[in-house]
Amino acid sequence: MKRVILPFIVACILIGCKEQKQNNNSSVTTETVTEVVVTEQAVETDPKVDSYSGATGYVKTISLTGIIVLPPEKRVMVSLSMGGIVRSTHLVPGALVQKGSVILTLENPEFIELQQFYKESEAKCRTMELEYKRQTQLMAEGATTEKKLEESKSEYIAIKSQFEAAKSKLELLGVTPETLNKEGLVTYLSVKAPITGYVANVDVNPGKYVEAGSAMCEIIDKSAVMLRLTAYEKDLADIAVGNKLTFEVNGVSDQQYLGEIVSIGQNINEQNRSIEVYAAIKSKESLFRPGMYVTANIDFKSKEK
Predict the structure, then answer these.
(1) Is 263 inside any structural domain?
(2) Which domain holds residue 163?
(3) Would 272 be classed as within a structural domain?
(4) Residue 51 covered by a domain
(5) How does pLDDT run across 158-176, given as a tens digit for each residue?
(6) 30 and 92 part of one domain
(7) pTM for the structure as a whole
(8) Do residues 35 and 79 share a domain?
(9) Backbone angles phi, psi at 59, to 5 degrees
């Protein structure tokens, strides 16, 4: 009886192992088929190559940092070719001034002497002109010599050049000869704002002597602020004039503003391999100030063809 039971038990064990192995193989096969299906679906839904980035259909973005700056013509240093003592001024940093308005007055005896010389030169010039014309007429009638005519001409040219030089100096100081002829000598030199803008870097006060050519203050026009951004050498191939960008300004909430690249520098910084990129600001904000820190992003899918 025992001899019959033992072979039967061994046969049952072998049959069970074979069935378990077949089940395992079936499971492996099912998982492998599932993986193939998923892979095929992924290939079918893979995004197409983007025409701008040359890689995928995802947006390619380059991030830049920089500051708000002013174009050179929008930042004017106020200085004069003649020095003097500041008699009066109401300059306050941050104050808005209009072009042509008086921002301070100077006193200098040389300013009065220049006006006097101009008036004297003007009178002499008229006299010499009349004399030269008279000698020319006499020469035509044979009533004078060529020597006298040449002397008259030389004197007229010399005094005329002095007169024109004095006139030009007054115009550089903001004094129009027409006003001087109408109102007479001006005691104090009025310094006027060359542009409309905000006062900055005030370096004068009543009683202070200002040297000729030294800056008294600065006037900035914020109507045309722009961005000076830092790009890196590795991104230059993707950056071009005309690229649209969005940027945020540090301290001005989380609002995004629009801009457009208008210029790309030509010199590479050898230390960090960077280059300056300038962008015009399309959306204005009264809170913008030169020197404010900004972060910008260039979205290449928004680039115009």
Answers:
(1) yes
(2) 74-220
(3) yes
(4) no
(5) 999 999 999 999 998 988 8
(6) no
(7) 0.66
(8) no
(9) -65, 130
